[in-house]
């Protein structure tokens, strides 16, 4: 099956979070998939992000120059660890320091428009108290997302995908219970 960067894959609300969410089922090693492990997917990401990322990144956002994928992956993992801990209510100064190291590295290595550079800038904006949203973890897929809604009531990374999947599962369970009871 060919993979494509669909709107669902940009549910994070910020470039740094969409990058973090390029790992599917991060906590389930048997099913986990790193979408950036395939170079074609990684190279196609910036073009899709220009169209689909909520942050509307720089129109110059372009694929990574050769030899920088490893740094981007390190930055991605530092983003996930830091913001996940924060969303879980246990922020850590050490994880923040690790993230700041990776951000500094990416900013030194790149320039405006480079995927690693722009991801680092996005992460910096997320660290800021003025980021304009609440950081959450989707209870279905465990992706990180920034809830920018006024009353901070967004429950899912993407209602159309994760919200409906959970509703369908609950519905199925309820029907099954009813059937078993009858
Ligand atoms: Zn989700």
Write the layout of secondary structure elements.
Blueprint lengths: L14 H6 L2 E2 L8 E2 L4 H14 L16 H19 L5 H17 L5 H13 L6 E4 L6 E4 L11 H23 L1
Antiparallel strand pairs: 1-2, 3-4
Bound molecules: zinc ion.
Question: What would your notes on this structure say?
Answer:
- By secondary structure, this protein is mostly helical.
- It has one domain: Orthogonal Bundle (Jann2411-like fold), CATH 1.10.3300.
- Helices cover 51% and strands 7% of the residues.
- It has six helices and four strands; from the N terminus they run H-E-E-H-H-H-H-E-E-H.
- It has a two-stranded antiparallel ribbon with strand order 1-2. The chain has a two-stranded antiparallel ribbon with strand order 3-4.
- Strand 1 and strand 2 form a beta hairpin.
- The longest helix is centred in the C-terminal third of the chain and has 23 residues.
- It is globular and about 65 Å long.
- The mean pLDDT is 92.
- The structure holds zinc ion.
